[in-house]
Design brief:
Number of strands: 13
Strand content: 15-25%
Largest sheet: 6 strands, mixed
Strand order of the largest sheet: 5-4-6-3-1-13
Number of helices: 11
Bound molecules: alpha-D-galactopyranose
Helix content: 40-55%
Order of helices and strands: HEEEEEHEHHHEEEHHHHHEEHEE
Shape: globular
Length: 391
């Protein structure tokens, strides 16, 4: 990657490389913006950015994936508008950092990523967080503050009203553990996963057009639920404050669609806690059932699944050694995550790929979900995956 950077930009100065991982969420979907619980894992799939200061007064960013070079005078970056382009992520982050008082100097950035784009594995947050670290080039920043700045870049500059999960796990992931995050207090804890199981993500290879608009619609429906419930109970500030039992008595206050959305969120928060408890007891079958309940709730009550995701979940559940399966991330395409016994991994990979090909004529991507570390500077450059090379 150092050679690729020198080849692209010239220059003989020190080049540093920063990495931020993608993520898979094991359970707790569409709960983060309702200030509830999530349980993601940082992946080995990651975005790497090699950076070096330059003396040209420019910010230059080259993406190997896009095969595209973009540049701006660095003193114009604060005034740039959204372009609906991949550079919105690093530019949005640069603007947030500048607004927070960090000096962003002229620099050359080379971006390389193994996080598949549009697969629901949070390539956006991986790009935001790696870009932030590259732009800071080693300047110290509090990790929680950085997660919030990156989330704000996505909300206000990119225009996606996301919660904090993706940016948070990109920064707080830990090798070997899932992370349970309380999206209200922003406390987190490492949760070790039972040794006899492994998790695999399967990519539908589709991203339906609805994904962006429906996400915003769901956030509005949840806000509408809270507003209606507050008329009865002013202490409720978010769906986090409502228990499944309390919601049952409040549903008549809500329009039917809003009631179903709220039911998903409230039950899903409870499932995260039940999943962690079951894991601590080594009750793997219960963990699996909770994953399937989560999927059914996303499918029927929250309505963010799609035929490809449902097919992958149903196919997985028919394979011997599979314990649980559900969609992961925002939905409308992207990936499922499946919990299975180690010895079933080969059978699962082959079986699910064959069934998906036969049904949709597409080869699904399958990725290991081994928990990896959160973002940081890459010390051992040999660990960086190879890029496409120079044209
Ligand atoms: C997307 C968002 C997250 C979260 C998930 C759904 O990944 O970026 O904040 O809301 O969807 O759980």
């Amino acid at each position: 990657m150092i050679a690729a950077h020198r080849g692209r930009f010239g220059g003989g100065g020190r080049i540093r490389v920063f990495r931020a991982p993608g993520r898979v969420n094991l359970i707790g979907e569409h709960t983060d913006y309702n200030l509830g619980f999530v349980m993601p894992v940082a992946l080995e799939l990651a975005t790497y950015i090699a950076t070096a200061p330059n003396a040209d007064g420019k910010l230059r960013i080259y993406s190997e994936d896009q095969g595209e070079m973009c540049e701006w005078p660095v003193d114009e970056v604060a005034r740039l508008a959204r372009r609906r382009h991949w550079t919105d992520y690093p530019i949005g982050v640069a603007q947030q950092l500048m607004a927070a008082g960090f000096a962003i100097g002229p620099a050359d950035l080379l971006v390389r990523s193994t996080v598949p784009e549009g697969a629901g594995l949070s390539s956006s947050a991986a790009l935001e967080v790696s870009a932030a670290l590259a732009l800071l080039n080693g300047s110290a920043i509090d990790r929680l503050r950085l997660a919030r700045l990156c989330q704000e870049a996505e909300r206000s500059f990119v225009g996606m009203p996301c919660g904090i999960m993706d940016q948070f796990i990109a920064l707080f992931g830990q090798t070997g553990s899932a992370i349970q995050i309380d999206c209200r207090s922003l406390e987190h804890r490492a949760v070790s996963l039972p040794g006899e199981v492994t998790f695999l993500a399967v990519n539908t290879m589709v991203k339906h057009a609805l994904a962006g608009s429906a996400y915003a619609e769901r956030t509005r429906e949840c806000a509408a639920a809270v507003e209606a419930i507050r008329r009865r109970d002013p202490l409720v500030e978010s769906l986090r404050d409502v228990t499944p039992e309390a919601l049952a008595g409040l549903e008549s206050l809500l329009p039917p669609v809003v009631a179903r959305r709220a039911r998903h969120v409230v039950a899903e928060d409870a499932r995260v806690e039940a999943f962690v408890e079951a894991g601590a007891r080594g009750d793997v079958p219960r963990m699996g059932r909770l994953m399937v309940e989560s999927h059914r709730s996303l499918q029927h009550d929250y309505e963010v699944s799609c035929p490809e995701l449902d097919f992958l979940v149903d196919t997985a559940l028919g394979i011997d050694g599979v314990i649980g399966s559900r969609m992961t991330g925002g939905g409308f395409g992207g990936c499922t995550v499946t919990m299975l016994r180690h010895e079933a991994a080969q059978r699962f990979r082959a079986g699910v790929a064959e069934a998906y090909r036969a049904r949709f004529g597409v080869e699904p991507g399958i990725y290991s979900c081994r928990p990896a570390a959160g973002a940081g500077e890459v010390e051992n450059l040999e660990n960086i995956p190879p890029g496409p090379g120079l044209p």
